[in-house]
């Protein structure tokens, strides 16, 4: 089956990797119950939907999701652009399977990106009181979410030195004369030392320069121009440690994406990258982010999320001839 809003390269490729509604708990056709969750430090809330809430035959591809977002136009969440779809795990060793969908400014969707804050939103919406192991279907990551009081530590269970963390095989690449490190950990990221960027107090100029570097990295990594990937962040090292400015879809990130924090720590753990290893909290415009790297994982600490409310939304199944 096809969907004009979901390029073939952006779909989950095998039937075993698709998130499907579980039998026996399907809602009445045409209506889906969703939960809106806001993770602290995220640019906005996430619409969280359990797969067993979808009508029979739903595929959760571009056409159906576009109509779902249109239904939000009459609610307080009209601008919501992050969707988390999840259900019981289909593989041993995991608790939940999770799929992230990023709505794009042009009305399309990116099905290949990951979002750590939306993953946490799905865990909080599901209400698990203990540790949860989540398989991120779109990125292939396994993430352990452990509650500590009112916060979580999220551990990406992959060694920073694992094959593929440096997608070009090099710790440093040069884009437009600027040395950068391209890292794939949680999401593909471009990290650039702010010393190699033009000095400017105009945030629009800085954003445009970062977007130009991101576009060149997208070409190298094989991402289409309209994709949300790769992400990009500029950092500076000073007496108080690392400080970071990052872009997200539509503008500046208020802090740093959870996957960006994980990728930063992974890059810092690798020899030869432009990123120094974080030795304390990483400073961002909205506050600090705490990360740590071990031989077999990267941890992002002190993450919180809360449920904002529930919605019942119409769901029109996409049909093909």
From TrEMBL:
What keywords appear on the UniProt entry?
Isomerase
The family assignment reads: Belongs to the PrpF family.
Q: Which residues form a coiled coil?
A: none
Q: Which GO terms describe its molecular function?
A: isomerase activity
Region of interest: Disordered? 1-20
Task: Kindly indicate whether the keyword Isomerase belongs to this entry.
Answer: yes
Superkingdom of origin: Bacteria
What is the official name of this protein in its record?
Answer: Uncharacterized protein
Organism expressing this protein natively: Streptomyces gardneri
- The answer, when asked if Isomerase is one of the entry's keywords, is yes
Which InterPro entries does the record cross-reference, listed alphabetically?
PrpF-like (IPR007400)
């Amino acid at each position: 089956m096809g969907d004009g809003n979901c390029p073939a390269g952006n779909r989950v490729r095998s039937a075993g990797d698709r998130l499907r509604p579980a039998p026996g708990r399907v809602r009445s056709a045409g209506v889906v119950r969703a939960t809106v969750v806001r993770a602290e430090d995220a640019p906005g809330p996430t619409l969280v939907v359990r797969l067993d809430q979808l009508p029979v035959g739903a595929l959760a591809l571009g056409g159906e999701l576009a109509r779902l977002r249109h239904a939000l136009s009459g609610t307080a969440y009209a601008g919501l652009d992050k969707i988390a779809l999840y259900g019981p795990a289909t593989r041993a060793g995991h608790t939940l399977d999770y799929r992230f969908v990023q709505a794009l400014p042009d009305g399309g969707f990116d099905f290949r990106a990951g979002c750590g804050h939306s993953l946490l939103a799905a865990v909080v919406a599901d209400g698990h009181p203990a540790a949860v192991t989540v398989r991120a279907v779109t990125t292939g990551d396994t993430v352990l979410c452990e509650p500590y009081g009112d916060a979580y530590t999220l551990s990406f269970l992959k060694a920073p030195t694992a094959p593929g963390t440096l997608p070009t095989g090099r710790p440093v690449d040069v884009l437009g004369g600027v040395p950068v490190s391209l890292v794939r950990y949680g999401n593909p990221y471009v990290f650039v030392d702010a010393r190699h960027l033009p000095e400017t107090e105009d945030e629009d100029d800085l954003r445009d320069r970062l977007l130009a570097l991101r576009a060149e990295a997208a070409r190298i990594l094989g991402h289409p121009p309209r994709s949300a990937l790769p992400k990009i962040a500029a950092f500076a090292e000073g007496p108080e440690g690392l400080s970071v400015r990052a872009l997200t879809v539509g503008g500046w990130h208020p802090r740093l994406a959870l996957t960006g924090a994980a990728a930063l720590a992974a890059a810092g753990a690798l020899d030869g990258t432009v990123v120094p290893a974080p030795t304390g909290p990483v400073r961002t415009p909205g506050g600090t982010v705490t990360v740590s790297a071990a031989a077999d994982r990267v941890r992002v600490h002190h993450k919180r999320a809360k449920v904002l409310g529930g919605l019942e939304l119409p769901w029109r199944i996409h049909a093909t001839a």
